[in-house]
Design goal:
With about 325 residues, this protein is an alpha/beta fold. Helices cover about 55% and strands about 15% of the residues. The protein is built from 11 helices and 7 strands.
Length: about 325
Amino acid sequence: AANTGYQDFPRLSSFLAHDGFLPRWLQNRGSRLVFSSGIIVLAVLASTIVIIFDADEIAMLPLYALGVMLCFTLSQAGMVHLMTRISTLKPGETLKTHATEVHYEAGWWWKRALNFVGAITTGAVFIVLVVTKFTEGAWIVVVVIPILVIWLRSIHKHYEAVARSLSLQDAENIDLIDIANVAIVPIADIHRGALRALKYAGRLAQDVRAVSIVTSPEQEERIQRRWANFPDATEGIKLALIDYDFRDILSPLIEYIEHVSEVEYPDALITVVIPEFVPEFIPANLLHNQTANILRMRLLGHENIVVIDIPYHIHGKEQDQEPKPQQEPWHTLN
């Protein structure tokens, strides 16, 4: 029984995923050419059931019996439906369905009768088990299966809605949105990562704007001084310094981006280029990029704003290097 579950559940989930009733990633094979995602999902579900029932196989036995009887009932009821459709065909005729092609079969009437009797028998056993074992765990099947069916249908409706939205039917060039010749680069200071992002943005658009939210006169003076020290890298780029007293740098920054998108370029895509640090050691990511991540998530809800990340990799030697005495601290959009 255990081998059957691990062999067939991943395959069944891949079929349902292919038809749009489960997440698409369940139909992808892993490096060993098996449905790894389905195996992992099954392992998690099986482990959850074992934990809930405290690894008591006697307590889990009603679930197994209910599952077997329900599968038999549904499969034989499906065969009754299939033979009913075959009964409408004449010898040599075929009927194309959504999933397969049905051919005429001689003796369909006794096959339908046999499956009908089987479905009634196993269905009756299933009902008896539900009634007699309801308090011993059968209620899980009664509750979970309707919820599961609703969930599968909602996934299918979601994929259908996405397909309709992405469909090229009746699409014309006039339906495609224009791309604004502007790129906004949020920065907290002038450093190598910021200059790298500014240079990249300069290749994307002619109107490049470096936007920084300043919360003190000292910060404003420092940014202007460092900006003036790199005339080649900042040539032709506008520096917008926005004074804000409440330390919440995201709100005024997003308001500025929204103003450019909705007022200056209301019917076009604008680009936001975000410089991002990539430390050599993964745990160090917790010390950086949190503000950038929040900004990216908040801009994701805007239809006409495109966000581009420009990574700047910080290597171990650079992290361990002692700062020079005359160096000022760097401030990052972290």
